[in-house]
Amino acid sequence: MRRWRLARVVEEINGAGGIAAAATADVSDEAATSAAVAALRQRVGPISTLINNAGISGPVDPLWDADPRQLWRTIEVNLGGAFALTRGAARDDLRPGRANYQHHQQRRRPPLAARVRLGGVQGGTGEAERDLAAETRRHGVAVFSVDPGLLPIGLDESALASTADPDTAAGRVFGWIRSQLSSGHGADPDRAARLILEFTMGKGDRLSGRHLTVDDDLDTLLMQIEAIEFDDLRRLRMPRRPQ
Questions:
Q1: Which of 24-38, 94-108, 144-158, 200-214 has the least mean pLDDT?
Q2: HSE toward the beta carbon, residue 161, CA cutoff 13 A
Q3: Interatomic CA distance for residues 50 and 83, integer angstroms
Q4: Residue 230 neighbours by CB under 8 Å, 6+ apart
């Protein structure tokens, strides 16, 4: 998000009586990211919810034509950025000596929640998120993987504005995205935001360690929670075959 957009959102929230602040950093630069998070902590307090959704689309060429530098840059941002932010939040907000704060916060919401990522990161972080959910459960932390769907904002804006030749790899990919959105197969940004908001309020904590999509109805899933837990469904891993 451009800085002028961030500034406008901060102004709107503060104007409506909320408390907002913004800081920007390249998430692939751990030092810069840590400094930005520290600045936010100083201005608005400890982290209660972490949403990892920073990402870039990366190369769309066939593997044999892809630029290795662009591919690695995508991994640094989409995967490395999520790791750096989650590690920093967990290290600083779950460190020993914060027990009183954690206990107080558990009555309202978890002290830290690595709630959402881009769907493209899922394949590389599913195992890590499963482990994170298990490791932080005793701290009252909920960890989710959420696919927000194909949205007409963010990364897909480049597809909507693209003038790439339809016969090129980029043209075919961006053309498919445009056709999906124009035919009504995209997702509603407001619906995706509402789902994330429900997570930040602690509504879906029993689903921690699982993958959900924008098309899921949280109330329906919670009504089925006993079956989901018994059959170990939606876990962020491939199920192991019985020996």
A1: 94-108
A2: 6
A3: 12
A4: none
Tell me the angle at which helices 81-93 and 122-136 cross, rounded to the nearest 10 degrees: 10
DSSP SS3 for 88: helix
Mean pLDDT of the chain: 79
Instruction: Let me know the angle formed at the C-alpha of 191 by 187 and 193, rounded to the nearest 5 degrees.
Output: 110
The residue that leads in pLDDT, 107 or 195, is 195
Contact partners, residue 160, CB within 8 Å, separation at least 6: 152, 177, 178, 181
Residue 212 bridge partners (DSSP): 146
Instruction: Give the list of residues 6+ apart from residue 19 with CB closer than 8 angstroms, or none.
Output: 13, 44
Q: Which of 97, 112, 130 is nearest to 52 (CA)?
A: 112
- Cα 42 to Cα 89: distance, rounded to the nearest angstrom: 14
Of 156, 196, 203, the closest CA to residue 176 belongs to 156
What is the reported pTM? 0.76
